[in-house]
Amino acid sequence: MTEKQKQKIWNFKDTNLQQWQHERTIVENELSNNQSMFCVCGKLATGFHEMNCRKFNDKVDIETLKRLKL
Ligand SMILES: [Zn+2]
User: What is the pTM of this model?
Assistant: First the structure.
């Protein structure tokens, strides 16, 4: 994720935290269901792993940005 993307997320969350969380939960569930056994980082995808995986969370953040057209 780029610094610019991070900045956009921070700015958006500052004023629209609920909308961000709502949209992000949808994206997270979709990406989580799409993966059969492995996470984007190549490790075995468990719910616990994804919650703590930086690569997975970055992917969710970037997709959420796209959906919110930021
Ligand atoms: Zn991972």
Answer: 0.90
Give me ligand 1 centre to Cα 63, in Å. 16
Q: What's the chain's Rg over C-alpha atoms?
A: 12
Any idea which residue has 């994804």 for tokens? 50
Bridge partners, residue 38, by sequence? 44
pLDDT tens over the chain, length 70 residues: 999 999 999 999 999 999 999 999 999 999 988 766 899 999 999 889 999 999 999 999 999 999 999 8
* In contact, 17 and 10? CB cutoff 8 Å: no
